[in-house]
Inverse folding.
């Protein structure tokens, strides 16, 4: 293995040396992802809808926790990939599921939308660096990479909350539902709330180094805990939506 892959990384406030247990709080807080994965999987089983995509997402949440634990203990370059790749996979997998489940897109259209989102995600940071002439990654402590995910959550929520086009059918008009679909509205409000929670968790990730002088443990562990809640809630919303539809 190339020596660069074993280069130590000191990226967070809590780490003061390259030792395995130099970030105990950051490392142990990844247990929140394992708890979130178990809760999400239990919800899938209780729904009894055979929701395999949600079950796979639940397993991916556990992988996120394991990968992050590796990075916050080993703290070398290859472990960084074990940390960021599962998170990216969850983001794109959930976006694909959202296109299919919430908006009813076909496989091809959903994949095209996901690829477009990935392109925006990958291109945002270089574009902002060019506009500002500064490294947005350094300014945000690496959090800029997650900004497109918040925007995507807000966008999907807005799409679900928007009234559906065309006049309502007679049965829906009789029920007083108009062009609003209760299941879509519930999912939209849920995703909007998750977007707010994600923004709060991202703020703790961003502030980690800034608070070091006053709080040597930093705030990265709060990012883990709140983000585990974000992932669990996203799966719960998808499961509830499918159950209501079925």
């Amino acid at each position: 293995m190339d020596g660069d892959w074993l280069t130590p990384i000191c990226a967070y406030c809590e780490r003061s040396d390259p030792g395995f247990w130099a970030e105990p709080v950051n490392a142990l807080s990844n247990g929140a992802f394992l708890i979130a994965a178990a809760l999400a999987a239990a919800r899938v089983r209780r729904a009894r809808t055979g929701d395999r995509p949600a079950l796979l997402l639940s397993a991916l949440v556990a992988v996120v926790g394991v990968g992050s634990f590796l990075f916050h203990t080993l703290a070398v370059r290859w472990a960084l990939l074990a940390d960021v790749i599962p998170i990216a996979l969850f983001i794109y997998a959930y976006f694909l599921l959202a296109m299919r489940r919430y908006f009813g897109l076909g496989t091809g259209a959903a994949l095209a939308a996901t690829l477009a989102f990935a392109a925006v995600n990958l291109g945002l940071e270089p574009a902002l660096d060019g506009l500002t002439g500064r490294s947005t990654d350094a300014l945000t402590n690496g959090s800029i990479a997650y900004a497109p995910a918040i925007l995507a959550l807000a966008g999907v929520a807005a799409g679900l909350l928007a009234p559906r086009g065309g006049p309502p059918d007679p049965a829906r008009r009789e029920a007083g539902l108009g062009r609003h679909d209760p299941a879509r509205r519930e999912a939209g409000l849920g995703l909007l709330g998750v977007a707010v929670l994600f923004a709060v968790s991202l703020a703790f990730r961003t502030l980690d180094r800034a608070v070091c002088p006053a709080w040597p443990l930093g705030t990265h562990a709060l990012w883990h805990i709140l983000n585990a809640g974000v992932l669990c809630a996203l799966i719960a919303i998808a499961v509830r939506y499918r159950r209501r539809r079925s």
Residues 84-245 form one domain. Residues 171-178 have pLDDT under 50 and may be disordered.
